[in-house]
């Protein structure tokens, strides 16, 4: 996205665990990754914007995804 969001979201560890799924928590708070090709969003074709699960910042437009051959859009 063209705009840069620099605000941080201050939440306790318990608050993050309450609002995020276990997989989201691992990726967003523990620097984990999804297994390549495992996301149901890989096949998502509808127009729209992907947002961060933690802070709701817009990340990218669906139309800008490309097949990288790595399992990640």
From TrEMBL:
Keyword Isomerase set for record: no
Q: Kindly give the PROSITE patterns that the UniProt entry links to this protein.
A: MSRB
Q: Mind telling me what this protein is named?
A: peptide-methionine (R)-S-oxide reductase
Q: Specify the MsrB domain's residue ranges.
A: 13-73
Q: Which GO terms describe its molecular function?
A: peptide-methionine (R)-S-oxide reductase activity
E.C. code: 1.8.4.12
Q: Which UniProt keywords apply?
A: Oxidoreductase
Enzyme class label:
oxidoreductase
